[in-house]
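Reposting from the mailing list since nobody answered there.

I have sequence plus structure tokens for a pair of proteins and want to know whether others read the tokens the same way I do. The first protein:
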Amino acid sequence: MIIPLQEHTKEIVNHNFTFLRVCILSMTQEEFADWLGITRNMINSYERDKATPSIAILVALDTKLKIDINKLLKDILTIDNFSDFLRTPDATKDYIDSIASQH
């Protein structure tokens, strides 16, 4: 049985998804979609709050970026707290830049 996310959780997840794409990875919707193996239309749906990324997509972010999924679901991501979202304590902007450059 799939338990739907609460409305405020959807908004947080969609905000964080967009924030990661734009502010952290500096990718277009097309680049981000290719990087995650989904369509640009799916990215657009998430960013317009028409849909919420599936657990599989969140796990892909976790795998690729080492982002704490629990925090991604609960807390608003900002430049100031970004390092708190990373599971790797020594991860830095350089680390994220190196991951983003692989797309």
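The second protein, same order (residues first, tokens after):
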Amino acid sequence: MGVRRLLALVRGLPPDSATWRQEHGWGHQEELLASLLELTDAWGRALAQLLGGRVQGKPLRIQRPGEQREQAEPESPPVETDPNAIARFFGLKARGGEGRA
């Protein structure tokens, strides 16, 4: 089988084939579902504003394969679990290890 014949066969594969999805990401169904969710969210937001409600947060945006994330949200600081550090934060006297075996 020649290279041109193989290329013609691969290009002729249907969109739901594994080779096509590997190369292009989502198929038509996944793209339509993502669009449907985004549009439903937009309609819900518009209806909420129309009825006088407050719309909170960003509109829903589903990341497509191959897209870069817009901006990484800032990471929250690590949770402090040391009892002495928590006591110092609240201005309390830190425990010196009493009651530990």
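Reply #1 (J.P.):
I read it the same way you do. The radius of gyration is 27 Å.
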